[in-house]
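Please, does this match?
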Amino acid sequence: MSPSYLGSIFDQLTTSVVMLDSEFTVSYVNASAEALFHRSSHQLLDASFESFFEYSEEIQHLIRAASLSEAPVIEHDATWGIRGQKPIRVDVVASPIDQSGEISVLLEIQNIERSVRFDHEEQMRKKQETTQELVRGVAHEIKNPLGGIRGAAQLLALEFENSDLIEYTNIIIEEADRLRNLVDRMLGSRDVGLFAQLNIHKVVDRVYQLALAECGERIKFVCDFDPSIPDIMADKEQMIQAVLNVVRNAIEALDESATPNAQITLKTRIVRQVLLGKKKVRLACRLEIIDNGPGIPEKLKSDVFFPMISGRAKGTGLGLSITQQIMHRQGGMIEHDSVPGRTNFSLYFPIEQSK
């Protein structure tokens, strides 16, 4: 096999692969290693491996132990402080490679946090699918008698057309319509949508205009866009709905908490080597919706995407559930990270599908 062919195979791995020469400088990295270190191969190659860490004593010990060993050296649940990043937990296998009498070290690095997150997402996905089917069943059972109630109220309205009682029949009809709309939202749409080339910033700009019309100047919006992001393949209307649901959630959380200097940031960036569901994509667009509100209550963090779950007094608990359904249908993913004073919902859209 040619080196280029082997390189293309290694680039498909979710495990980060790094080859160090006898001087412990980087001689090869795969695509996952670039994503792990948040650096391109041009920045990594021919550089001292230890230079990428805030503290490197443990790294030095691991590499030297492997270079002096005849068998792989394995380290479980190591904490690596990569420069410019928060510490990450990794499993590492360091194997000595004899290359014409010179010992190189091959590092296989597995990001534990990403594996744990992937397992968690799979479990959540299965639970949510079960919950959605249950909700759909209940919603259908509600719609049938609701239609009967509305029809009976309309017949009564004809009888009481010239009576003061018409006010009560109108209330019944209006409330039946309101419940029907709520049930329709619970059912959601199974339509995949009309895929077309789409500039993500047109979606965000549309949502920004709608949000600005709703909340006026009481909330400051900050837009931080990367104009180099290529078009994605997606359904425009569904994407607007997905993003708008998250932004409205942020607006309501800021309003209900009366957060001083309330602010929502809309930020786009390109990310590489991302797992979207069970599929690994080399290139994706990440849209972050960040607010400075009170944060998601700890007891709700693992359930925010379930229908009917809301931490707000006036919330229906449907917005985020619908957004997640849309993201899955569009081949993307949504995740969140929340602490008091900063809640960040990240929406990932694959760019490769647009090719």
User: Anything to note?
Assistant: The chain has a mean pLDDT of 84. The CA atoms of residues 290 and 350 lie 21 Å apart.
